[in-house]
Design a protein that fits this description.
The chain is about 30% helix and about 25% strand. It has 2 domains: about 210 residues, TIM Barrel (Alpha-Beta Barrel), CATH 3.20.20.10; about 120 residues, Lyase, Ornithine Decarboxylase, Chain A, domain 1, CATH 2.40.37. It contains 11 helices and 19 strands. The protein is α/β, with parallel strands linked by helices. It starts with 7 loop residues before the first strand and ends with a strand. The longest helix has 25 residues. It is elongated and about 80 Å long. Bound molecules: pyridoxal-5'-phosphate. Pyridoxal-5'-phosphate binds next to loops.
Length: about 375
């Protein structure tokens, strides 16, 4: 830290992302493409920096959730293929084509709209078809009685002019959950996916160069689903492998001890007076709160790493500050660093305490927290 104010910051260790990328890559069969998911500002890590790294390391594809995220990458000089996972209104077909972006077709009606626009422009739009195999979110329906209709819709879409159908994909709902019921569900999603592909091929001769379905959970637990490309997000940032891949957390959220005071027993701490000291307590005030991304739901239920020890967080987390008990950490002084999460303070323990998942906490580190890139 030199030119920053040394209040609260997020260190992004690019060598950890590089390490994680190669650790994931080493699991893949030869020829399998790697799509790095960099939506939501690369899960808070900075989409442009992460994309540049993946481009340099030889990844084949990127994915974002919307057009604005894709354009940020193009403006920043990213030239590799980018898939937009979510919806883009048909009015933006020209922008998609001009920026060489790949759009997801989520149903036949939308494929028709994109085709009409592309014909009008006299250009071709690159498209990946998305199949809904059990997420009940985006994608062509094909489960149960809708199988025949789904197959026919896909064949009809592929006959539309000025669309290039490069890819075909689906998304798993519970590939990261180890229980037997989830395993059965995931396998059924994959079975349906391949059954639709086979039926389309058999009836129309159409096949797709890039078939993909493996998110992080599937990359780790269902190697049979890797197909032509994998689509991990969370693994890149160091989580979701259950320790099996030796991934390294890429983000370290750090704040500082701004003040230390000693309070007598019976002292109320913070809003709502939800913590009352039971002994003489040495309390540190940290310069980070929920407006930086500390989950307020974890108030009184988590600890941060200070001077190599776990400092219990006490009292309700405020917007810009929170308090910790430093009684048992005499080495902690004003100006010390406190690791909220990172290599030395488990993000998953914090997300459990906040009744959420690591994804949400990574995405919740706010704009006012400067990102500091290490090992570029
Ligand atoms: C977010 C997302 C991914 C990545 O999921 P992880 O669990 O982070 O690997 C993959 N595919 C789609 C369609 C997504 O929306």
């Amino acid at each position: 830290m030199n030119d920053l104010t040394k209040r609260t910051w997020a260190e992004i260790d690019l060598s950890a992302i590089r390490h994680n990328y190669h650790a994931i890559r080493s699991l893949l069969p030869e020829g399998c493409r790697f799509l790095g998911v960099v939506k939501a500002d690369a899960y808070g890590h900075g989409a442009l920096r992460v994309s540049q790294l993946l481009q340099d390391e030889g990844a084949e594809y990127l994915a974002v959730s919307c057009l604005d995220e894709a354009l940020e990458l193009r403006r920043g000089g990213i030239t590799m293929p980018i898939l937009i996972l979510g919806h883009t209104p048909k009015e933006y077909t020209r922008v998609l084509i001009e920026n060489k972006l790949t759009q997801t077709a989520t149903c036949h009606a939308k494929a028709v709209e994109y085709s009409e626009e592309a014909v009008r422009l006299g250009k071709v739009l690159n498209v990946h078809i998305k199949l809904d195999t059990g997420m009940s979110r985006l994608g062509y329906l094909c489960a149960g009685d809708l199988f025949e209709e789904g197959v026919e819709n896909i064949i009809a879409s592929c006959a539309l002019p000025n669309l290039e159908f490069e890819g075909f994909y689906t998304h798993f709902a519970v590939s990261d959950e180890p229980d037997e019921d989830s395993r059965v569900y995931t396998k059924e999603q994959f079975r349906l996916f391949t059954a639709v592909l086979d039926a389309v091929k058999e009836r129309s001769g159409i096949s797709f160069p890039i078939r993909h379905c493996a998110n992080s959970g599937a990359v780790v637990s269902y190697p049979e689903t890797t197909l032509d490309m994998v689509r991990p997000g969370l693994l890149l940032y160091g989580y979701g492998d259950g320790g099996t891949l030796g991934l390294r957390p890429a983000m370290r959220l750090v704040t500082t001890v701004s003040t230390i005071k000693i309070h007598e027993p019976g002292t109320c701490v913070s809003y709502g007076r939800r913590y009352v000291t039971t002994k003489r307590t040495r309390i540190g005030v940290l310069a980070a709160g929920y407006a930086d991304g500390l989950p307020r739901l974890s108030s009184n239920k988590c600890s941060y790493r200070i001077e190599g020890a776990a400092a219990p967080q006490i009292g309700t987390i405020c917007m810009d500050m929170c308090m910790v008990d430093l009684t048992d950490i005499p080495a902690a002084e004003t100006g010390c660093e406190a690791e909220v999460f990172g290599p030395n303070n488990d993000l998953c323990a914090l997300s459990d305490a906040a009744q959420t998942i690591p994804y949400e906490l990574l995405c919740s580190v706010t704009k006012r927290v400067p990102r500091v890139y290490l090992n570029a």
